[in-house]
Design brief:
The protein is of the alpha+beta class. Helices cover 17% and strands 30% of the residues. The chain is built from 2 helices and 8 strands. The two termini are 29 Å apart.
Length: 96
Amino acid sequence: MIVWVSRSNWDWPGSSTSASFALRVPMRLFSSPMQRPLKFQHHQFVGDKRNLVVYDVDNLKNDSLIDELMDAGTYLCFGPDTAVEARNRGFRLYQE
């Protein structure tokens, strides 16, 4: 699905007047196949501190892994939320 976002009365830097026009920008909306855990609803990558594995929640097929991780309480999120940051902290991406 494509959503069009419009902005009007844009103030140009360095000018004293504002131009009146509509800027239409297409944005794609994607839905995730798995519901993210409530504590990590804004994070795609969730790490397990027990075995230093990071899970990509959006592409994970086995939901029971995340449920077990939440029950154990040994989870960790990364900032910025990327696989590169997880790798910098010594975590490896989970391979199914």
